[in-house]
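Morning!

This is the sequence you dropped in the shared folder:
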Amino acid sequence: MSLLAPLYLLLGAAAIVPLLIHLLRRRIGTRVEFPAARYLARAEQEHSRSLRLRNILLMLLRVAIIVFVATAAARPVARWAGAGHGPTALAIVLDNSLSTSAVVDGRPLIEQFRSAARDVLGQATASDRLWLVTADGRLRGGSASSLREELDRVEPLTGGGDLRSALARAAIAVRSAGLDSRQIALLTDGQRTAWSQSVDVGDVQVLMSLARGAAPPNRAVVAAAPRPERWTPRGAVVARLLSKDSTTYRITLAGRSLARGTAGPNDEIVIHAAPPERGWVAGTVELEPDELPGDNVRHFAVWIGAAPGVALSAAAGPFLRSGVDVLKSAGRVTDGRDIAIVPADELLSLPALVIAPSDPVRIGAANRALERAGVPWRFGAGGPRREESTVVAASAFTGGGADSARGNPFTDVSATLRYELVAQAGAEADPLARVGREPWIVAGPRYVIIASPIDPTATTFPIRAAFVPWVAEMLTERLVGEPGGVVTAVPGRQLPRPRWADAMESANGVRAVLGDDLQVPAQAGAYFLDRGGRRVGAVVVNPDAAESVLERLGADDLARRITAQRVLNASDRSQFTRMAFRAAARRSVLEPLLAIALTLLLLEAVMVRAGHRTA
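The structure's back. Tokens below.
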């Protein structure tokens, strides 16, 4: 037995009062012989003996009444036969990740979990503290009836959530209740990818109920992306499927079908296209619905425009001229004035691919031109550095297109003549390439600057095989169109706001101004990013590909991943309901103690009344 309010035991000290009254009422006097009353001696002795016994019993009854009342006030709980349970802090952790929308035995798993949670709430009493925690970490507290209403509103997530964090939050909640009985009731499908790491919930008992049987077969689109990110206007959609057999697919672009076909098990799909749409458009790769429909569609976004017109300065050098001619013959660029390729001292407007001037005398003119164009970089005044140094790709080189996907374009590249690049206010934090710790190629909105002339006497870059693909990527992806790009994310996450965007369009086209952070929508899709009322990119939201792998853990494997006071596993729904308050199988002893105290009080009243009648 334990006490929920042990300080009230101090009331038991009042039990000394009846004892004191009994002692004070004892008559102590001088014995006087009175011969005339000797015949009453025997009757007096018998009456005195019965009176003494009655007073002792009354004293004991009154002491017992006070003790029982004081113990009842301390709210004792103990294990004893019968139904019910003592006050319990119970948190139901409901796995509503994407995988629980899979249909098993004709019903989605999430529906089966909801029903089990309702049964548990039906066993709760008014003295219990209750919470509902979902896989996204959302914590709801309240009465059993209010949590049943919350259960009706719970829907499967479009992502995996974080069950480890949800379990940790549930443990914090039940510990904060201040009750001795603490338990977490966990309803999960036991997906292996969701429980890849252990979680410690401390001195809390955990009761698990796992989905039974094998996971259903699943077909999913686990990757979908345009290659490159910007089409001018040709490009490709690349998708990867998860499937144990052949399956049909459909690719859409701007709401229309772009391609259909059949893919083999775990195939990669590559569809080339030159669509007529222009600007930022959204697309999907879709499969026929199966037991888990939430991963049968994957979204992407792509910018489509005409091949950019390139104005090449004669001073740019023969290697850049040859590279641009190759791109013209492939139809990736044309003659025009959309993008300039010029030495820095000839820069007049953006967008531009800017190279260092070959003559150090022109550095001053180059810096003035950069300032007029609003580019936040300058060439150092110390003159060129003439030493052979290795060029390495920096973390910012994330073009994301087909060319960058081939690998590091700066492998075996060195620079023997280069200028220092000095950042001004507003410059990008990371360069595209470095020499040592110094930037060698930097980029920003509508500009790319190379710190060396494009000539073999200054750098080996123009004679490497990756040079022309890199130029193509800069011209057709980084410099073409509006500055911006694609942000990929899983549902519900919070990301820093891209500096090149100030608003985001909802699924129905309503624009919302962005703050310092970007709250990723909870539903999968492509959400366009705007700047100044124009589309400059998109947030592409898709579930984590790992959520499509439905392999499950066994009860013992999952229990080993949870560190708790005790981990129990319910074999079926009825056992889960019965064991939900196992941590509080102890019932309150308050009512029996009060009943005993009342019985003793009635007995004491009867004895007092009988004594008065006898007197």
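Headline: Confidence is low (pLDDT under 50) at residues 396-405.

More detail when I'm at my desk.
O.
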